[in-house]
Every structure is written in structure tokens, then in C-alpha cells.
Amino acid sequence: MTKDIQWKETHCARMDHGGCSLLVGVQDNEIVQIKGNPEGYLNKGYTCFKGRVSADRLTHPDRLKHPLKRIGERGEGKWRRISWEEALGETAENLIRIKEKYGARAVGFGVGMPKGLEHFVQIRLANTFGSPNVIASQDVCHAPREVTGIHTCGFYPVADLHNPTELILLWASNPTSTNEEGQIASIFYEQLKKGAKLIVVDPRRIDFAGRADLWLQVRPGTSQALALGFINVIIEESLYAKDFVEKYTYGFEDLAQHVKAYTPEKVADITWVPADLIRKAARMYANAKPAALSWGNPIEHNINTFDTTRALICLMAICGNLEVPGGNCNAHDPKIMGLGPFVRADLVPNKYKEMISAHYKIIPRLMTVAPAYFRKAVLEGVPYPVRGYYGMCTNPLMTWADSKITYEAFQSLDFTAVAEIFMTPTAAMADIVFPVAHQYEMNDIGHYGIGHGIIVARPKIVDPPEECWPDIKIINELGKRISPPELWYDDFEKFLDDVVQPAGLTYQQFVEKGYLKGPDRFKLYEGNGFKTPTGKVELKLSTAEKFKLKPLPEFTDFPEADDPDFPLLLTSVKSQYFLHSSYRWVHKLREKRPHPRVEMHPETAAHYALSDGDEIAIETKYGKVVQNVHITDNVHPRVICAALGWWFPEGNPADQYEWRKSNFNMLTSIGKLGREFGTPNLKSLPCRIRKI
Ligand SMILES: Nc1nc2c(c(=O)[nH]1)N[C@H]1C(S)=C(S)[C@@H](COP(=O)(O)OP(=O)(O)OC[C@H]3O[C@@H](n4cnc5c(=O)[nH]c(N)nc54)[C@H](O)[C@@H]3O)O[C@H]1N2
Ligand SMILES: Nc1nc2c(c(=O)[nH]1)N[C@H]1C(S)=C(S)[C@@H](COP(=O)(O)OP(=O)(O)OC[C@H]3O[C@@H](n4cnc5c(=O)[nH]c(N)nc54)[C@H](O)[C@@H]3O)O[C@H]1N2
Ligand code: SF4
Ligand SMILES: [Mo]
Q: pTM for this structure?
């Protein structure tokens, strides 16, 4: 007899940044239904399709269920099942051998999009092993916003959508697909219902553009010019917050002088946004008190990301929107363990000087190594040899720019271990593959270290397959073998207790609460100033000379020069049905989007005589891929928008599942990088297309 459905509470994860509180129906150790929890702090009952089918990740017959050792060539798809003891032992032996020969820094510890607490336990592993090299996609994901924020105003300014706002300026973000920064789309709808105005800056007509008061269809890769145009209008028309600017900013006169060059007419030429619309939008933003600027990922997807994030923070500041309710705030953490002690940063005190990227004089405060620099170290030995890698929660062959170089780097490494839920093109190149327990199968904490002032409980709901271990357990056991064992726990779940211990809670007590949020604190600057060298918001950076940074944000050129041989501009968006390169193997998701599709305007399609569904080759200077045409007037006739992260789990294992065929990062290059973060151009790439 089957038992009644039991409903358990947890938070969604590993499908985007996560955050929806869920009610999960369980019968006989199997999840039978998932629905939104009306009490959820971030989502208030909302869920998306992929959240509702997320339990299908657990039951796929081809899921990895045993540790594997490669027996064929790298990427040939030949494996032998081994025991955990053997998998951990062999990994430890190899990493220690590399350490003995080249030093601890010759091993890179890889993480992907922060998915859960294991992200930080992995950083701890790098530290206990003694390696300064944590390899992360931060160069294209949030570090530019966070670190530029710290340099400009002393904190990472997050849109406060939990307090009433008069206007949301949604800049390069598509919450109905991505819930960027864990700000669930429902929270935007609520603000709009209560009368907030909306301006959308996006080259595509996203869902929210339909609801917006203004939509600025910006040319990809020109956001910093547009932001400087806004600032020009706001200063020229004297719409800025004079009292705040006078008391709390540094370098206003320099900025004012500097932006004179960015007239709406000039900016219109660069950005394709008509001058009148720039004026109108700038006035609307400046006159709304308060206004929240909710920014997205593409501002970090080109070599000019430092200028872009700087310009946007200057815009928030001169309109007096920093640290006010409904503006852009410093989200204070609840009483939880700080990241530094949790990852044992003290064990590698000279990390910033010793990490690979130190060689490239990156911006201070960026503590992970950009994938571009990691691969140069592997392939060229610059600034020193790097020969080993342990990665989890990441699929670099698909998600790092310049996939051909990624392939070469993974071919060249002496040893690679990967922890995964499913065999991927990257895992296929590993020497050892660890099978992991997944969301719903382990206790976890979400949003730790994300900078939004909240952590959410993700308690275990069902048991994992027998040999699938949570990443934290794998790291804990590996840690005991490759670093001083006393730095690790008998019971790996102690790491969960550690995080909430300062709040006087055990993990189980935290689960009862569901989430912990820090205090709302506004206008702390009135007493303390800003945490910058001048104590003010640095519109002009006082440390520019010392750190060799640009004092003022500027537009110098397009990320890549126009090229008549490549007449179209290529950009991309994240699919609402997948997370980057993940889950093409989940049938209910794949049914929604069976093929990689590239959006193009009807005029463009007509020009190339293309119809919906046609296979086309998309080519940049760097490579070529195949995707299927999807005709829509949501995009500009000169812009095409391709799909990311595509490989084919049903494809030939001996060919690493056709990882080249439709993979967007075959079209990108690491030949040109932004100096501050090591960011490559992922968007705004000149391209051409042809029918196959
Ligand atoms: N061209 C281009 N490149 C991009 C982007 C872009 O917009 N354009 N976006 C960039 C951004 S913002 C990011 S954050 C990165 C993301 O890059 P990645 O983090 O590398 O990509 P994902 O597909 O999110 O995750 C990779 C793997 O994690 C595995 N996984 C999921 N859950 C778990 C788990 O619990 N444990 C373990 N061990 N593995 C798990 C999945 O199966 C998947 O294979 O990509 C970046 N790359
Ligand atoms: N479903 C789903 N959700 C996700 C993810 C996922 O892969 N899938 N990834 C997660 C991660 S790690 C991240 S970082 C976030 C990212 O979340 P978002 O920032 O929302 O993601 P994107 O889809 O990269 O881009 C958002 C919007 O920017 C527009 N855009 C593209 N190029 C440009 C440009 O040059 N200028 C401007 N102004 N806009 C541009 C796109 O048209 C798109 O509508 O999403 C998270 N959530
Ligand atoms: S919006 Fe994100 S957190 Fe919410 S259900 Fe969907 S995938 Fe999960
Ligand atoms: Mo990201």
C-alpha cells in the first residue's frame, strides 16, 4: 500500500540562483509534486516551470551513480567503475604528487555558478591545500558589480525591491526567465501592481518590456555609453540630488566636466537609442524618489565591464538612490559566519600576490582566477606551471569563453577530477569522476555569500542513490587526504551548523525558521560616511593611480570593432528552461526547447531567405556553430540572439556529446580581455550567418 503524500518545506536550487520556497510532496522516498509556498519570503507562492519539474533531475536512468576512472583516451568515453576509496585515494595521490613537484599553486580548484554551500567548502579546500587558485566564472558573473561597488561606494549596491519604489530601471536583466540575483520575478510584478514605473534597457523586447513605460532597445555592448548619456542629461538639466552630491560624493565636478562629451545625440549614434528617448528616460529616473536600478549579467559580458558598472553606480549615486529604501542598498547579512573564517582565508595570507591573475595586475578584491588566465597558466606555464584541477558544479568546456582553448587545456593537464550529477563534455575529459547527491537529497544552505543579506534553508527531502555523495562530503573526505585532517570534520554536516552558529542556531533549528535575513539599514553614511578611502562615493576614484584604474568611466569603443565581413551583431540570453549548460537531459525541459535556437528579426530572415526552424551556421572571427532559426521581431534587425550552453546528452559519448556543434563559446575568444577582471567579450560579437 502506498503511503499518503507528506509535504515538506525547502527552497529551490541549482536551476538558477534559487530562492523560491517550495512545498515538496513525498511518497515512499520519491518526490511526486512540487508547488510554491505561499509563505515564501522571496516568492510568495510563485514558482517557474523548471522549478516544478526539478525533481526529474534525480530519477534520470543515466544519472551518474558510481565513481568512475577513465580507461580510454581523454574524452573517449571509456570508464571503469571504482570504489569511493579508490576514487578519493587516486585523486589525493595525484594532487599531492603535483604539489610535491610544482607547489600547491599548481592545482586549480574549480567552481561554477555558486549553487550552494559546497562553493565555499571548495574554496576552503583550496586554502587548506595551500593553493591560491580558485578558478571561477566571476569575471563574467557578479564580480564586476560587487568589486566595482566596493571600490566606488564601499559596498555592493543591490536593488531593494522589498520596500516600495517609484521606479525600476531594469538594465540588461530578464527576471521572468532568470530571476537574476535571486530576485524572483514575482517581486517585480508586485511593485508594478503597486504603481512603480518601469524602464527597460535591453536589445530584446523581453517580457517586461511589454509592461514598461519606456523600452530602450540598446545596441549590445554599449551600456556604459548609455549610462554616461543619462548622467549627462541629469547634470545638464540639474536633476541630480544636490544635497547628497555635495555632502557625500567625491569628484562630482570632474564627472560633470567629463560627461559633457556624452550628449544624448552622440550617445544615440553609439547606442541606437534615440536622443529624445535617452532624455526622457534619464529625467524619469532622476525624478523618481526612490528608484531601484536592477542590473543583469550582460553588463559584465565584455571587456568594458569596469566602465559600465562604474557608470551605473555613479548614476545611482548622483540621483541619491544609494542606501535608501526602494533604491540600491547595502544588504546586511544576518548574524552568520563570515566568509573569510568559513573558507579559512587565513591559511593563504598572500593569496592576492600569489594567485595566477596577480601576474595580470587585476583589480584588488577579486579573489578568484578568471578562466582565461587559468588556461594560459596550463598551456603556457605563465606565470608558473599549473598541472592539476579539481572542479565541481561547473562545465567549463561549455561555459568558458573560447572552448577550443578550454579543450586544449583539459587535454594538457596532468590530472583532473570532476564531481557531477551527469556525464558532461567536461567530465568526459576527467581522470576521475565523482557522482554527487543533488538538490533535495542533501542538507544545504542557499544564498550564502551572494550579498543579498539573506540565507535560505534547503533541507534534504529524499535519500540519494547509495553511492551519490553531497559535494561537501566529497570535499571533506578529500580534504582529510590532501591537507591537515584536523581542518576537516568527522561529520561533514558540521559545516552547515558552522554557518548559522553565530545566530545561536543549529542547522536543524535554522531549517525550522526557513530563512534568516539581516537587518534593514539605510543611510548609514549619515553617521559613518562610505567605506572608501575618501569616506564618500567616489565618482572619481581616489585610488585610480595607485591601482592603475581609470578614474572616470568612459566609452572608448565597441567591444569588438565593426567588420563588413561580419555584418550582424551576436548576443545571447539565458534560457528560461535551462541553467547554462545544465539539464538538457531532463525530458520535460528538453520538450520545451528541443533545439538550440537563434532569434532573428523577420527582415533579417527574409534577407537571408530563412524560415523558422532552418539550420544555420553562425560564424564569428573565432569559430562556427549550428543553431535553428527562430523568427521574432523582439530583436533588432542587425542583432541575432543565440542560445547558450548547448551540447547533446543523446549524442555520441566518444565525441563528448557533440560539444562543438552548437556551443556558443566556440564563437568567443580570450584574445582580448578586460584588464580589471580578465573578462572576455561574450556578447556584441560581429558575426555572419548562412543557411546550411
Ligand atoms: N558565452 C557565454 N558564456 C557564459 C555565459 C554567457 O552568458 N555567455 N554566462 C556565464 C555565467 S553568468 C556563468 S555563472 C557561468 C556558469 O557556468 P557553469 O557553472 O560552469 O555552468 P552550469 O551549467 O551552471 O553548471 C555546470 C555543471 O554543474 C552541474 N551541477 C549541477 N548541480 C550540481 C551539484 O550539486 N554538484 C555538482 N558537482 N555539479 C552540479 C551541472 O550538471 C552542470 O554540468 O557561465 C558563464 N558563461
Ligand atoms: N533560467 C535560467 N536562469 C538563470 C540562469 C540560467 O542559465 N537560466 N543563470 C543564472 C546566472 S548564473 C546569472 S548570472 C543570471 C543572469 O541573469 P540575466 O542578467 O537576467 O541574464 P541574461 O539572459 O544573460 O541577460 C539578461 C538580458 O540582457 C539582455 N542583453 C543581452 N545583451 C545585452 C547588452 O549588450 N546590453 C544590454 N543592456 N542588455 C543585453 C538580454 O536580451 C536579456 O534579456 O541568471 C541566473 N538565472
Ligand atoms: S524561479 Fe528559480 S528558484 Fe523559483 S522555482 Fe524557478 S528555478 Fe526555482
Ligand atoms: Mo552567472
A: 0.98
